[in-house]
Design goal:
Helix content is 58%, strand content 0%. By secondary structure, it is mostly helical. It is extended, with a radius of gyration of 24 Å.
Length: 156
């Protein structure tokens, strides 16, 4: 007991919860293993960007975007905007121009347009990452073939 009659000493918040409890996601990641988790993530990325089955592609897109946009349900439903799949830098430009047109025509607010631009930018980054993986794997194979011993991460 402290001198002023308080039952808790300075620095003791009286927290009676269990010490060292772990996040469910951390436990799941440990069970899956980091390498397997990255493989699953990469598989979702590939499916989200270029999957043949529209339902699987949509499901993978939701899986990847849900943690980034947890409150995406807020706001009004925006219809009539058909973004093209981002397979090249030209597709990014097409989508950005479409959104700019919708803003200038008054169909989207500046805030809604910014949200679309953020989604387009994230898709561009993902596309770049997917495009870079084969190049990095080629470099890694070349280095291995020529006994150039530099540790590079395994990418799939």
């Amino acid at each position: 007991m402290s001198a002023d009659g308080n039952s808790l000493l300075h620095g003791n918040k009286g927290h009676t919860g269990r010490q060292g409890t772990r996040n469910k996601r951390t436990i799941m990641l440990e069970r899956i293993g980091e390498d397997n988790a990255m493989s699953l993530y990469n598989l979702h990325l590939e499916t989200a960007l270029g999957g043949e089955d529209p339902e699987l592609r949509h499901s993978a897109q939701q899986f990847l975007l849900k943690p980034l946009l947890p409150n995406a349900k807020r706001g009004r439903r925006i219809e009539g905007i058909e973004l093209v799949p981002i397979l090249s830098i030209e597709d990014v430009s097409k989508n950005e121009n479409l959104i700019l047109d919708k803003i200038t025509e008054g169909e989207l607010t500046l805030e809604e347009g910014q949200m679309f631009f953020n989604l387009i930018e994230q898709s561009r980054k993902t596309r770049e990452f997917i495009d870079i993986i084969p190049m990095l794997n080629e470099i890694k194979a070349y280095m291995k073939e020529h006994d150039l011993n530099i540790n590079l991460p395994v990418l799939s």
